[in-house]
Amino acid sequence: MKVVQQTVTLLTLKEPPIGVWILSGLTAAIGLLIFLSSNSSIDWFGLVCIGLANGMMFGSPVKTCQFDKQGNWVIFQQKGWLGTQVIRRPIDQVTEVQVEQLNLFGLQLYRLGS
Predict the structure, then answer these.
(1) Helix crossing, 44-59 with 18-37: angle to 10°?
(2) How crowded is residue 74: how many other Cβ atoms within 10 Å of its Cβ?
């Protein structure tokens, strides 16, 4: 999660799905190695791995959370390849915000909970 904009009245947080991108990159690399090392003309398992990696990468949404004090709104947006979902709530109705900390291969990542 990274802070995109921070002012006195506005805070915008963005969470790109880095863990999914890393996993899909590894899956694509394994699929490519299997595909290239195969003796048959077409290795279907390698192609399936590459296809799954593309689906994971393009299907995972980027999450944005915006706290607008002046407009009294919290806007939660998930934008992915398949579309965009926006949830708007008045700040008064928000009782808690969950931020989960993850450690992935020594990287410290944060995730917005739902």
Answers:
(1) 160
(2) 20
| pTM score above 0.85 | no
> Cα separations (Å) of 72 from 40, 67, 69, 91, 113?
61, 8, 5, 5, 21
Cα of first residue to Cα of last residue in the chain, in angstroms, is 14
Say which DSSP state 61 is in. P
With beta carbons less than 8 A apart as the criterion, state whether 60 and 71 touch. Answer: no
Q: What is the pLDDT of residue 113?
A: 63
In terms of Cβ atoms closer than 10 Å to its own Cβ (0-12, 13-18, 19+), residue 43 is middle
pLDDT above 70 coverage of the chain, percent = 89
